[in-house]
Write a structure and sequence with these properties.
Layout (H helix, E strand, L loop, with lengths): L2 H23 L16 H24 L1 H10 L2 H12 L7 H21 L8 E4 L9 E4 H18 L8
Antiparallel strand pairs: 1-2
Helix pairs in contact: 1-5, 1-6, 2-3, 2-4, 2-5, 2-6
């Protein structure tokens, strides 16, 4: 890997380490506690983070291989429904524990790393426009490269939500 792909690979690996450190900082007995997001507990939020790399890998694939279809979906899918499904999918996992979260994140990490290896440098600037209603942090023109960076940003955002963001970043 050269150029941007090499730096993204490092960033994605450091994000994995960051997530694992986050898991270590949270006691399993805290998983049922509420967060700043009234829809999710601590455990729900941690589980939601594990879904990010796999979802982003799929979105990157869509931009590279089916950009028009993906843009149509972004423009026409009812965003409220997506956000409700996203919230519901992360909620209520009865058997969330540290090992299950590690396993889930590692699976997603493997998928995003694989997607990075298979993405060509020239594909990094392919883009779609994300509506703010879908994800405010991704509103506007979003390139493949930006989605790879979002793996880190997604963890950081939820780290802050959990009150666990490192003080020196």
């Amino acid at each position: 890997m050269a150029g941007i792909k090499s730096s993204l690979a490092v960033e994605i690996e450091k994000t994995r380490e960051r997530f694992l450190a986050l898991l270590e900082s949270v006691s399993e007995s805290d998983y049922p506690l509420p967060t700043d997001n009234p829809a999710w507990t601590v455990g729900d939020t941690l589980y939601h983070i594990t879904l990010g790399p796999r979802a982003l890998a799929f979105e990157i694939w869509m931009i590279v291989h089916a950009r028009g279809l993906f843009q149509f979906w972004l423009d026409h899918f009812p965003h409220r429904l997506f956000n409700k499904l996203n919230a519901r999918f992360a909620q209520g996992r009865k058997r969330i524990n540290r090992q299950a979260l590690i396993k889930a994140y590692e699976a997603g990490h493997s998928v995003i790393r694989s997607r990075l290896r298979r993405t060509r440098e020239e594909e990094m600037q392919k883009w779609v426009t994300y509506p703010a209603e879908l994800e405010a942090m991704l509103a506007g023109k979003v390139t493949v490269e930006r989605l790879f960076h979002y793996v880190k940003q997604h963890v950081e955002a939820h780290e802050r939500q959990l009150g666990r963001a490192p003080s020196s970043q």
